[in-house]
Every structure is written in C-alpha cells, then in structure tokens.
C-alpha cells in the first residue's frame, strides 16, 4: 500500500503505528471517549479463567448442574451470568479416565472469552496451532501433560461458531472441599486441556 | 442467526457509512498463511502457565481500534478475519497477535476510506505494512440458505477438495478427508459469503470427527481431531 519510493523506508515500530491509527480515528470522531479504557478494564479484571473455574467446580459438586452443562453449555454457563462474544455457542467436553480433550483454533485464535478470558500468547502462535492437530500426544507430553496410550485424545478445532471448554476430572484428594475451594484448584490449562489436575 | 459479527464486544455505533474503495495489487495469496494446522517446523510451544490480558498498552489499544473500525465500516466477522489472513506471509509469521489486529484494522480503515495509507505512514514516521488485496470477487448473490441439515450425527462425510481465493473457515488439512458427524449445531452465516459483501447465506454447521491416523498417514493411535464445518464444505463420500 505504500507509495513508490517508500519501500526502503524502515517499518515504523508497532507502538507508533498503533498511535498513528488511534490519532487518525480519534480526529475523525470514531473513538468514543473512554472506549479503549473500558475495553481494557473489562478484559483485565472482569473476565478470565476464574469464571470457568466456578463453572467446573459447580459441575463437580452438583450432578444436576453437570448434566445441564454437558447438554447445553451456553445455558448452564449463563446461570453464572457469563456469556457474550465468543461464548454465545458453548460446548463443554468432559475428561474421564479414558478420554482427554484439548481445544485449539488452527485458523486464528478462537477461544471462549467469557469463561477463560483472552487467550495466552502461546495459544495464538503458530507452533501450538500447527502441532496440536498433528501430534497432540507428543505436544501434550512436551507441555508437561504426558498421557498413557490407553487414554484417547480428542482434539477440538474451533473452526466455526462453537467455542469449547474442557471439563477436567475432579482431582484425587479433594473429597471434603467446598465448591469455592475446588474452584481454586482449577487452572486455565486444565480447561484448555493442556494439563490434567 | 442474527448475522452479527464475532469481532468483539460493544461495537460502537456510527451513523456514518463508508463505501469500499477499489482494491489493487498483484500479490498472489491463495490458501493463506494463517491456515497452519499440521504445518511442520515451528518447534516448541513457548508455554507459560499464566499471563496478563495485555503485555503492553498498545496491545489493548490495537484490540479496541479493530472494534472501532469494524463498527464504523460494518465489517462482518468474516471480513475482519480475512483482513488478517491477507497479511504478507513473512509479516504474519514474524508479528504478534495484536500486530495482526492492528494490520487488519488499518487495512480495513484504508479499504473503506476512513484513512489513507499515506496518512498512516506520515503519522507513524515510517512504513506501515498493510494486508494484500482481496483476490476473490465480491459476492452479490449468496444463494439460498440451507434450511435443514443434510447430514445427521453418525453419518460419514467427505470435505470438499477445493482452494478458494477468498475467505473460508475450512482448514486445508481436512480437505478431501472423510470423517463422521458427531454433532449438528445451529444455522450460521457462511464466512465465505459474508467476508465478500453484504449478502448472507445461512447453513448448519457440524462437528466432524477425523481419525488423526487418516489425516496424517503416520500410524498414530487413539487420536481424534474434530473440526467444525459448514454444510456446503461437505459432500457425501
């Protein structure tokens, strides 16, 4: 898109490019006041894996909730007030002693924002996206989640409108814990499926 | 079913309307660099157990600006994604996620006449790489919706083997492959249509299960890969 003669000019640092677009759009009256700060605050403090952890802990202690969650993830997650963009069509996949689930988006970085927050950098970078569909057993082991051959691996590529959440198995030794205590055991990685608890 | 974009939250409403400007260029981009499923040679995943939502303030700004631009120009989720998929491959692979968003936002802003490339470069004090041109023709006639699912759970399907020049959500690694439908989902706007104009077509999507050993012919055992696919991506085997 640059004019002839600009081809040898150095690429502007990314911060300066962002500032340039921000300034031009602001001058044209397209950036509502406070919009950038509002978006930033929402993703920094209101959504994140602590939301998904509450869903998982509830499913561990309440069989009726678990049944609803596996039957209609979107509706069951909405019982907590969680929903919205990238969470409008949720499917929850359950880990068992015989099955391990893991989520990926090979084409971009689709991820269930309302329950997990924004995806980590490694989820968005090519190595994870390229390898998780090709050699998941190898990659999971590399990432600290070795699985015996008897465990079937189910990879879910979020290539359309459904977003996935992995329901990890309740860890051993958690028998007398409260729902809130259980939520504290649930990690982001266990809900992506790159870890077991 | 409401046709709204999947770009993000609270897209600011603007009464202004901006028409697309003609796109020119000679970069050949088919089967974009973004379609990385199964590609080899990328090496280890730089895993970290926890991360802040944004590592730098500019990332949050870039994210918000894409939302602003998409709202101003009425971009669908498909058009937004395609603005990133058209990035020059070397630039795509060597830049971070939010630089992708910035490049997509700036590309859409230029293509829809909100700003010019010269203005961006003057303000940025250097080159401001944008994505390559749209290669697919605009879609004026989306064709009829697929009102009811053609396939049901348990049925074998084959993914069409084709290489469209525009946007698609059919990953290359399953094209021509046979799988089994495991779930029938709702009706959704077909990305291949919505990325290239204001026309829309709705079709069911399916989760299709593939045996990894069939995909890669490498003898791996006990691995299923599920891909979510629109009705028109599939045919009877």
The largest inter-chain interface, given as chain pair and residues per side, is: A-B, 84 and 93 residues
Content of β-strand of chain B? 15-25%
Number of helices of chain A: 11
DSSP helical segment count of chain B: 7
Which stretches of chain B are poorly predicted, pLDDT < 50 over at least 5 residues?
1-29
- Count of beta strands of chain B: 5
Main pleated sheet of chain A: 2 strands, parallel
The name of the CATH topology of the largest domain in chain A is Nitrile Hydratase, Chain A
Judged by helices, strands and strand pairing, the structural class of chain B is alpha+beta
Oligomer: heterodimer
Structure in a nutshell:
The complex is a heterodimer of chains A (197) and B (237). By secondary structure, chain A is an alpha/beta fold.
Walk me through what this model shows.
The complex is a heterodimer of chains A (197) and B (237). Chain A is an alpha/beta fold. Chain A is 43% helix and 11% strand. Chain A has helices at residues 14-27, 35-46, 49-61, 63-71, 73-78, 113-116, 121-124, 126-131, 136-142, 179-183, 188-192, and strands at residues 90-94, 99-104, 152-157, 163-167. In chain A, strands 1-4 form a two-stranded parallel ribbon. In chain A, strands 2-3 form a two-stranded parallel ribbon. In chain B, 27% of the residues lie in helices and 15% in strands. A five-stranded antiparallel beta sheet of chain B has the order 4-3-2-1-5. At the A-B interface, helix 1, helix 2, helix 7, helix 8 and helix 9 of A face helix 1, helix 4, helix 5, strand 2 and helix 7 of B. Strand 3 of chain A pairs parallel with strand 4 of chain B, so a sheet runs across the interface.
